Give the backbone structure.
Amino acid sequence: MMIKINAKESVEIVESVFVSVINESGSKYHSWDEMTEAQQECFSGMRNGFQAVYDKFKDGMTE
């Protein structure tokens, strides 16, 4: 899942594989296996939260 935070920052989350934080300074790759459990929970929660919002509103985007 690619999440555009603002004009200058995005986060790509492939749960259980990797996270990439992309901003004007470049891209920071985080391997899922090298993250702490707290970091994994944070990114999983972020992905789940955005997915829930998308699911709630996606039908209205196609009308």
